[in-house]
Design a protein that fits this description.
Layout lengths: L9 E6 L10 H10 L2 E6 L4 H13 L4 E5 L11 H11 L4 E10 L7 H18 L3 E6 L2 H10 L7 E3 L6 H9 L3 E4 L12 H4 L8 E3 L27 H12 L3 H16 L6
Parallel strand pairs: 1-2, 2-3, 3-4, 4-5, 5-6, 6-7, 7-8
Length: 274
């Protein structure tokens, strides 16, 4: 996407920029993102090490990169009271805007389900204690996730289900709990994301945000000229995701860009240059 065609501002609410895939050329990755209208990126923390790395990246690019701090369900085996207290300390840093990536993932079960639930419950408490929003992950665990969130509803503040891929019931269960919805390039995959095109029209405008989840989930229909030589996903793919969402909801891309940017600013408590 040419810079001249880019919307005035977009916010990528989830990119794993501390991933080793970006170790050699992060400066160029950020340059490409800026050139296509990405005005802010929230760098995801998935365990203690990546949360600390996300904070360091945010400190190196103030006003452009921001961080989350959390324990992904795949990493829930690392849970301990000490880890939660270290995440609590990270949450006190001004660059850290959310708790997570936290949640349940029973698709791969890289950590025992009971350990995933315990880690999630402690992070829900941490978000409540700190007043930070939650950045949530769920795969193949909708029923259990909804039940747990309902059980903690009194202490549940702002939260987003990132990379939503579920069905209609899951969507409305999450919306009924007051959650925001994050959409990725999964929408662009005709093999497994086709059902999302109809569902996204059901998401209230003020609850919808967009993300790349880079380096994962490169949009399957991204034109070859826009695919990085490495083959990884990058934040510069966000305008392509925006256009796919705009086509699905039948709204102008510029209007949707402004709406999702305003929602992300409000949700995370940040302000980007428009």
């Amino acid at each position: 996407m040419a810079a001249t065609d880019a919307p005035s501002a977009l916010i990528d609410i989830g990119a794993n920029l501390s991933h080793r895939a970006f170790a050699g050329d992060l400066a160029q990755v950020l340059q490409r993102a800026r050139a296509c209208g990405v005005a802010g990126i929230v760098v995801t923390g998935a365990d203690l090490a990546s949360s600390e790395a996300a904070l360091e990246l945010a400190r190196a690019e103030p006003g452009y990169l921001y961080a989350t701090a959390g324990l992904h369900p795949h990493c829930a085996g690392d849970y301990s009271t000490a880890v939660i207290e270290q995440l609590r300390a990270l949450a006190g840093e001004r660059e850290v805007l959310a708790i997570g990536e936290a949640g349940l993932d029973f698709h791969r079960n890289l950590a025992p389900p009971a350990q995933q639930q315990l880690a999630l419950e402690r992070q829900l408490e941490l978000a409540h204690d700190t007043g930070l929003p939650l950045f949530l992950h769920e795969r193949a665990a909708t029923r259990q996730m909804v039940e747990l969130l309902r059980a903690h509803r009194d202490q549940l503040g702002s939260a987003v289900i990132h990379c939503f891929t579920g069905n209609r019931k899951a969507l409305f269960d999450y919306l009924d709990l007051g959650l925001h919805i994050g959409l990725t390039g999964w929408l662009c995959d005709e093999r497994r994301g086709g059902h999302l095109a109809a569902l996204v029209r059901e998401i209230p405008h003020h609850r919808l945000m967009i993300e790349t989840d880079a380096p994962y989930l490169i949009p399957r229909d991204l034109p070859p000229a826009e695919v990085a030589k490495s083959g990884r996903n990058e934040p510069c793919a966000l305008p392509h995701i925006l256009r796919a969402v705009a086509a699905a909801v039948q709204r102008p891309a510029a209007e949707l860009a402004a709406q999702t940017c305003a929602t992300a600013e409000r949700f995370f408590g940040l302000e980007v240059a428009h």
